[in-house]
Structures are given as C-alpha cells and as structure tokens.
C-alpha cells in the first residue's frame, strides 16, 4: 500500500488494527474490478483510507455510509466513547468533521465519497452493484443484521463481503457480528475466503 496513505491510516482515530487494515486493502484491490467499494460505518475515516487506497490504485471509488452520530457503544458512558467527538453545541456525537479532516490530510477526497444518513435508509434507495461491501456499522444484533439484509443483495457475483469484529469467543467481544457472519455463510450465497484477526472476507458465489 502507498506509504503516505499507510501512515495516515495508522495515525487516524478509529477501530482498525494495522494487519486487518491491510487485509481490507487487499480485499479492495481484488474486488474493485467487479464494481465500486462500499463501507457501512465510516466513523473518523480510518478504514476508509485502507479501502480508498485500494480504490485509487484500481481507478475505482469508495462510498462510505454513516449518520455520524455514533453507534450505541460510542455514546457517553459506553465502552467505546471518545469525548473529543462530541459536538459541544448539542452534546451529540458528530464524527463528520473529523472524517473530513482525515480525508483532507490523507489527500484522498477524490476517491472517498461520504454518504451521510442511516444505513437502512440509504440501502433502500441503493441500486449500483458493488465489488466490495464492508460491514462495520452498528454492532448490536438488529443493526448488524439490518446492514447484512439491506446491503448484501447489492454485492455483485464475484464481489466480496467483508465483516469486522468477528469474535468466536464471547470473552473477546460482542457476538452479534459473528451471528450475522454465520448467517451469511449458512445462506450459501457467500464462501469464506480469508480471516485476519477479527476481519472475515467472503465472496459471492451465487445471486
Ligand atoms: N470503520 C470505522 C469504525 C466504525 S464504528 C473505523 O475504521 O474506525 C461504527 C460506525 O457506524 C459509527 O461511526 C456509527 O455512527 C455508525 N453507525 C452505526 N449505526 C448506524 C446506522 N444505522 N446508520 C449509519 N451509520 C451507523
Ligand atoms: Mg469495527
């Protein structure tokens, strides 16, 4: 991966360990020939740099969807709260300004396109077949399942579906993404391709 982009990705605020970020980048390189890349769960843009780097190399784009108000686990009092991301005017989370700066500083605004809104609302109006879908939005079971059901039909044949935060051992993390990943595998529509830390890559085998 481009060295400057890698430095920006590593320095960005967010939840994407370096080895998993590079696996995401590799999946993006592989999938960009099939169609555009789409991420659910932008936050401050850390994973978007890894995927954006792949998109740039392949002449593709990344759409990244988020309402920028944080997931349940990002709210005050929860485990993954970061008070720097609270808008002092309203007391609500607002990661959009941080995302904007991350993309500007990395110099990747030309290939990373922010879509600001609720994932399920955007999914309902989406029609473009995707080369890659990365699911890293809300991590409660209803949210993760809604992202899978709403977005996975848009993954084109040969395209890839990537899940984050898959923990087989409940001691390591929440089980909802793992439940949804199992559901995706059981559907027979997706075959497992690779596993790096908590990142799982699958490929669409049928429509
Ligand atoms: N990929 C990021 C981390 C994402 S954190 C990284 O690399 O650091 C999860 C994000 O999903 C949060 O920013 C939250 O606002 C967003 N999110 C949660 N539920 C959502 C929903 N229903 N619609 C849109 N975005 C949602
Ligand atoms: Mg994650």
Q: What characteristic shape results from the CA principal axes?
A: globular
Radius of gyration: 16 Å
Tally of separate domains: 1
CATH class category: Alpha Beta
- What oligomeric state do the depicted chains represent? single chain
Please give the largest β-sheet: 7 strands, mixed
Assign the CATH topology: Rossmann fold
List how many beta strands DSSP finds. Answer: 7
Helix content: 25-40%
Query: Strand fraction band?
Result: 15-25%
Head-to-tail CA distance between termini:
31 Å
- Uncertain regions: pLDDT < 50 for 5+ in a row? none
Class based on secondary structure composition and strand pairing:
alpha/beta
For the record, the CATH architecture stands as 3-Layer(aba) Sandwich
Ligand roster: S-adenosyl-L-homocysteine, magnesium ion
- The CATH superfamily is known as Vaccinia Virus protein VP39
Strand order across the biggest sheet? 3-2-1-4-5-7-6
H/E element sequence: HHEHEHEHEHEHEE
- What do the pLDDT scores average to? 97
Number of helices: 7
